[in-house]
């Protein structure tokens, strides 16, 4: 199972190394190379480098930006097939972090026959990141005390806050904001394929990484060797508008939360802390949500002590619901809150309200706003946010305010280069899709829709929760990955895998 991914700013310590020259570039474009260097003398397996690409792909010889790249060398070089590019999602997660912390796990998906190559996409982390503040202290002051609004006064204040945020981002980041769409990143991925010398692309895209993959397949359908997409984003609502994207992003969250409660109820008091208590798990959770709506729940053991608001309760579910191995602890924390002590949940929520978390959300919004701009202004929040809540009472308000509101607040980024369809793929390369049946962030219906759009494709459904599927170990899914990525053999249509162990 891949280790947990974190959004970080990566500082690369580089020492002398080898230069890899790209094959001849397309007419009118300069050759692009990567100088690979050891990331650290003590770890010869990891190599770091920089790929220089145009800020605007319409002007390949114009202003350039640097993309930070990292690769883990194949452990079976005698049977090496090539490079496998990987993206962990977001938008905005770090491909460098993915390779550095989870490269060995990714290598297991390929039997050690590929170099595992990750990069920080443009506008993120170590690759010309979006910036909205001139210092971390300024950023911390801006976000101090801000949470997910749940009252009219809080919502009005948040709308003003994101309007100011958009202005700050435009002032600090300038024209970078016009050139960080997913289509721009897909073109970068093509340049990366050329730079590492692979005749065809082998790619694994996780979560939003599947959006990059589907965009690449639409732009470069004849340049794919293998593409595995795990946790499918639906590009149609994603690029239609910020409103459609947000509703789709949360459409399966409540079903996933219901599955968490169902499995907890089935496990009983011996297996799940929420079970028992003279009521069903569903009733206990409903009671907790109702209590938090009415008044904050004490969090006496948080540091410092405080109280869990309804908005913080929603935030506190955001990461635990994605990872079934953590469901037993999540159930304990919910149960403690239901009993009157929300310290554990409040501690989690505070981490989600950190400046780093807001930076990640802003970066995600900056990319998404180009792909599918808002069709309604942020002043429409009284009628718009409820439509997100209708899609998911749990995460609708969270993603509505985090990701829709900045787009709706006169976001400064503009582009004519974003790709918005058609999405029916004409690639002849076999494509492997993988999705959890109860994925809270990229719902199963997204995978079904993608299966219909690709010509030569197989969908593997992991009959469990988690986002993406690696959150719950499954030897069945792993075997399908290895056979596909190494031998290009798709599993049979209709393949359903089970987790190796139950969540409870």
TrEMBL record:
Residue limits of the AB hydrolase-1 domain?
102-250
Taxonomically, the superkingdom here is Bacteria
Keywords in alphabetical order: Hydrolase, Signal
Which residues does UniProt assign to the signal peptide?
1-26
| Recorded family membership | Belongs to the peptidase S33 family.
PANTHER family in alphabetical order: 2-SUCCINYL-6-HYDROXY-2,4-CYCLOHEXADIENE-1-CARBOXYLATE SYNTHASE, TRIPEPTIDYL AMINOPEPTIDASE
The name this protein carries in UniProt is Alpha/beta hydrolase
Q: Which organism is it from?
A: Pseudonocardia ailaonensis
């Amino acid at each position: 199972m891949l280790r947990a991914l974190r959004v970080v700013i990566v500082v690369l310590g580089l020492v002398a190394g080898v230069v890899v020259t790209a094959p001849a570039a397309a007419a009118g474009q300069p050759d692009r190379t990567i100088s690979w260097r050891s990331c650290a003398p003590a770890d010869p397996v990891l190599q770091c480098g920089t790929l220089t690409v145009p800020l605007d792909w319409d002007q390949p010889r114009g202003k350039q930006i640097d993309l930070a790249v990292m690769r883990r060398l194949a452990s079976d070089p005698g049977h090496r097939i090539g490079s496998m590019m990987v993206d962990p999602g977001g938008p905005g997660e770090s491909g460098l972090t993915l390779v550095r912390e989870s490269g060995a796990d990714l290598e297991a998906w390929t039997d050690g026959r590929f170099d595992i190559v990750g990069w920080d996409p443009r506008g993120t982390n170590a690759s010309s990141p979006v910036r909205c503040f001139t210092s971390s202290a300024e950023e911390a002051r801006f976000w101090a005390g801000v949470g997910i609004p749940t009252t009219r006064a809080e919502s009005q204040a948040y709308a003003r806050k994101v309007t100011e945020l958009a202005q700050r981002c435009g002032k600090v980041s300038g024209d970078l904001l016009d050139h960080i769409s997913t289509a721009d990143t897909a073109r970068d991925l093509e340049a990366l394929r050329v730079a590492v010398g692979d005749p065809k692309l082998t790619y694994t895209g996780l979560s939003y990484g599947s959006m990059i993959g589907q965009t690449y397949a639409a732009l470069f359908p004849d340049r794919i060797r293998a593409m595995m997409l795990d946790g499918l984003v639906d590009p149609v609502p994603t690029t239609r508008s910020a409103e459609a994207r947000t509703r789709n992003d949360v459409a399966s969250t409540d079903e996933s939360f219901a599955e968490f409660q169902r499995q907890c109820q089935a496990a009983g008091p011996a297996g799940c802390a929420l079970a028992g208590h003279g009521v069903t798990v569903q009733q206990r959770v409903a009671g907790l949500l109702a209590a938090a709506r009415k008044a904050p729940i004490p969090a006496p053991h948080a540091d410092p002590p405080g109280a869990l608001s309804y908005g913080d309760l929603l935030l506190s579910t955001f990461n635990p619901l994605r990872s079934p191995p953590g469901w037993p602890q999540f159930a304990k924390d919910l149960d403690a809150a239901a009993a009157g002590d929300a310290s554990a949940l409040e501690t989690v929520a505070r981490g989600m309200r950190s400046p780093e978390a807001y930076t990640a959300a802003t970066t995600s919004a900056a990319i998404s706003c180009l792909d599918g701009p808002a069709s309604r202004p942020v002043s429409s929040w009284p009628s718009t946010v409820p439509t997100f809540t209708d899609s998911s009472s749990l995460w609708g308000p969270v993603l509505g305010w985090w990701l829709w509101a900045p787009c709706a607040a006169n976001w400064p980024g503009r582009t004519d280069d974003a790709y918005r369809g058609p999405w029916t793929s004409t690639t002849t390369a076999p494509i492997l899709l993988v999705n959890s049946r109860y994925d809270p962030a990229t719902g199963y219906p997204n995978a079904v829709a993608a299966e219909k759009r690709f010509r030569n494709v197989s969908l593997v459904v992991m009959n469990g929760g988690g986002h993406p599927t690696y959150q719950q170990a499954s030897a069945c899914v792993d075997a399908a990955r290895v056979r596909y990525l190494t031998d290009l053999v798709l599993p049979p249509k209709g393949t359903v895998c089970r987790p190796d162990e139950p969540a409870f």
